[in-house]
Design goal:
The chain contains six helices and seven strands. The chain is α+β, with helices and mostly antiparallel strands. Strands 1-2-3-4-5-7-6 form a seven-stranded mixed β-sheet. The longest helix is centred in the last third of the chain and has 15 residues. The chain is globular, with a radius of gyration of 23 Å.
Length: about 270
């Protein structure tokens, strides 16, 4: 046993730690997102991958609060003396029967026996922190875009992922490499991280395995990640290629700055 090895009691405690994952689907889970190893960054305010032009990984305290809802801007026709007179239209399949289809499309509607049956969960857009709204865009179609790994109910790891179309910066980077398979498009893991205190304990590896299994269950045939070798590891969100190689990923593009790693999913 080396001089830096933990004592036997510590090793036993680590082995006994209970592990579970929590999808970020509400504000309670969002508040559990663990901190970045570098305090200058924050997973809860990062829009680096979602905004290819101005996205940032920086910690922004203002983003942690829900923005105020904007006031309504649509004027009433009655206030416009030049508007045509209102028409009495009735749509029997709208909940209010008014014929106005510009309201809440997710509100409960009167049953239309001729319409196809479907159920769509409404994404959170207002009244929540901006990052949570970004993570929730896939609700009802894809599902959660982020998950947390907890050891003994302590948040220790975080992963962000989703379809390529959800992350314009990933799409832009991928477009640089025409040798990558065009079809089917992969899912992407844009961020994998552990807290500074929980490193080198296998939490990130376990969380990536969970994400890959989840993505396979959602029908994806492959998943990619895009390490950034131009910055120190604590300033990047996609680890190093060696980390991915240990999880069954292969280097699909061997670039000295922005390589691409890829794993085919079963």
């Amino acid at each position: 046993m080396g001089p830096n090895a933990p004592p036997p009691a510590t090793r036993r405690l680590r082995a006994m730690a209970t592990w579970r994952v929590l999808d970020v689907t509400d504000e309670g889970a969002f508040r559990l997102v663990p901190p970045c190893a570098d305090p200058g960054f924050d997973h809860r305010t990062c829009d680096y991958w979602e905004d290819a032009e101005r996205g940032s990984k920086a910690a922004r305290v203002a983003w942690l609060e829900a923005p105020l809802a904007p006031p309504p801007v649509r004027p009433a026709l009655a206030d416009n003396p030049f508007a045509p007179p209102a028409r009495d239209t009735v749509n029997p399949f709208l909940a209010d029967g008014t014929g106005d289809d510009d309201g809440d499309r997710f509100a409960a509607q009167v049953e239309n026996p001729f319409a196809p049956r479907s159920s769509v969960e409404r994404p959170m857009r207002t009244g929540v922190p901006r990052k949570l709204a970004l993570l929730d865009r896939g609700r009802g179609i894809f599902g959660s875009y982020a998950t947390i790994g907890l050891a003994d109910d302590e948040p220790v790891a975080y992963a962000q992922f989703g379809p390529l179309s959800a992350y314009p910066r990933a799409q832009r980077l991928r477009d640089l490499y025409p040798q990558l398979p065009a079809m089917p498009l992969p899912a992407v893991i844009t961020c994998i991280a552990t807290t500074a205190e929980a490193r080198r304990q296998g939490h990130a590896r376990r969380l990536v395995e969970h994400v890959c299994s989840d993505l396979a269950g959602r029908g994806f045939a492959a998943v990619e990640a895009y390490p950034d070798l131009t910055r120190p590891e604590d300033e990047t969100s996609a680890a190093r290629p060696e980390f991915w190689h240990g999880l069954g990923f292969v280097t699909a593009v061997d670039d000295e700055r922005f390589p691409v790693v890829r794993r085919e999913l079963d």
